[in-house]
């Protein structure tokens, strides 16, 4: 690129930069202007400034849905209520977004954890969260459904039918910029530009910094042959978003239209078939314009560029700030953290929607694999010990099992804690009671899970390859309880009892899972114990025991 032209564009001297690329003659052929226009626009885009949006305007498009609980169901990407909510593959707290917001994402925007490509490509909407949305926000979900139907009708060419669906949705949600934008597109396809322009203006009023609204407005004004206004909208669009190729193509077209109108002929038009074209002549290509006239025309173009960047940008920032203040105020008034149930919701119905289909109790630390179903974390892991598939839909969960990132669904956990606190306390108590026998095995007469295999001795290291479902559960419970302890007894099935009366406590030093759920355990013997009684629970042999007799004697 010519350094002189580069410096001129950096200083926003559009006239001089344009003329610099042309011959220095007093008259210029229109073919010369046409030939250099595309290259100039490309360079112009490279040095056109970018709008730096104040940080507070990141909140400009927050959800304004009335009702308790909306803050829990707000997408962290688009700021609206979830539409087709999907729960990502996060290691601790799994975060939820609209499906369209993360369809190409490889990293969670909330916690920054990476999303495996195999997982993101086959993720399904969370059915439990969707059921809650349908129950708590029926009007908003109806709007989403109408919009989806309108989108399908547009694809099928039924533009009037699409307008009807969008209008029906707008009647329920008159503050959705997306709905007005979609209806604007339908009006444009019907060539009803007056109605389309009205919807485009409404879209911009609702979301002043959304590039799509300005893009739609520029297209409509161009088709209405309002060249000056179309160019201003396109320049404003360039300030907001120049990454889309359609934006660059639109700017080239507006520059060409502007020059065409000012000069008085169509610079890029092909000559119609005539006797002269048959002889190979092209009158428009030979037409000339004086450098002085072109300078005057380009000065108008430069004035438009400068005025758009100053007055129009200042205006749109002011509108965006006002919109942000209104949206944030509405968010504070409607998105309350109150523990009151959403309007019309009953605890019984919420409990029904939040019941684990495996244990038939309230979801406890719920996790949502990529198939979309939700279960208690401990329930799903026990199922995966037997087969790596969803117990409801039989979807293959091998990838989910391989990564072993059983993050708790943040949305479901927050909703249960806020609106079903009593039930959550009861459910937590039940879980803690179940874990208590595992975490207090150091007392002198308690139960311990028995791994029936070989004889082990205190101080003796022991390595295990655990693949049976019952023993995989045993290892997981030992780790989750915090004790890291289980009992080891020798198999004595041929001598009456299944295992010996004397065993050794093993302490897990290290546990490593494989992709298919098996695990390798490194343990060491701690002390001996004597079996008092035998029992079985969840397929695991349990034994009541008394501590090492030698340890008791040492205390005498």
UniProtKB/TrEMBL annotation:
Does the record carry Metal-binding as a key word? Answer: yes
Give the molecular function GO annotations. ubiquitin protein ligase activity; zinc ion binding
What Pfam families is this protein classified in?
LON_substr_bdg, zf-C3HC4_2
Lineage, top-rank taxon, reads Eukaryota
Asked if Transmembrane helix is a keyword of the record, the answer is no
InterPro entries registered for this protein in UniProt? Lon_prtase_N (IPR003111), Lon_prtase_N_sf (IPR046336), PUA-like_sf (IPR015947), TPR-like_helical_dom_sf (IPR011990), Znf_RING (IPR001841), Znf_RING/FYVE/PHD (IPR013083), Znf_RING_CS (IPR017907)
Which keywords appear in this protein's UniProt record, sorted alphabetically?
A: Metal-binding, Zinc, Zinc-finger
> Which residue numbers delimit the RING-type domain?
356-394
Q: Name one GO cellular component term.
A: cytoplasm
Gene3D superfamilies named among the record's database cross-references: LON domain-like, Tetratricopeptide repeat domain, Zinc/RING finger domain, C3HC4 (zinc finger)
Show the SMART domains listed in the entry.
RING
Protein's recorded name: RING-type domain-containing protein
Species name for this entry?
Answer: Ramazzottius varieornatus
